[in-house]
Design a protein that fits this description.
alpha/beta; Spore Coat Polysaccharide Biosynthesis Protein SpsA, Chain A; 9-stranded mixed beta sheet; 8 helices
Length: about 240
Amino acid sequence: MKCLHIITPVKDSIDFTLETIKAIKESEIKVPYTYTVYNDFSTEENTRRLEAASKELGFTLVNLADITTHPSPNYLLVLQKTQQEAIAADAGLLIVESDVVVKKNTLQDLYDGALSHDKCAIAAAVTVDENGEINYPYLHAKGRENQVYAEKKHCSFCCSLLTPEFLKAFDFHLLDASKNWFDVTISHEALKHGFTNYLFTNLPVWHRPHGSRPWKQLKYKNPLKYYWLKFTKGLDKI
């Protein structure tokens, strides 16, 4: 793994996203890296804000509207595109979602951690709330703070590094295109291919659950409406 390709997919929620971007740009990263934000059909106003931020903060912005007519979410397209680019560069693919804020050391330490663990497919940072308490989607990790251990369930892509060795072993074009999100499937495929996924509870990142997809807050505020939308409109397929 010679370098990092850091990516952030985003659709609107620009204020949260700018916090994510600034934290990444302020990170202390020793290894060569690129940083690309994939704008998945945000509004015209928010697209303009992202374009201005890319010039000010120095990251690459890809407006998916320029390369596809497929409606959002386009996570699969982003994963397939960035997988091939990472393989070509012998890079780790480091996904930081737009509702996550990393610490200065998070990304470099994930890189170092992935290299130091044999047959690592995914190196994931645990998520915490504003008080530093482990939160969704890693509630099952409570009580295992300040550790690094093999994750037998699945790793979320909130803040996760996928190694070149694993990227070469499983082609993302084999993923089910009818789904919207792929962290569970990809985690399980890593295990099937003889790799190990590691959760780094010693590298906490601040996560605002579903900050990038506000409608999912209904799952907690109005679960009946959430599940009605999920099943009648085919949203949130995992």
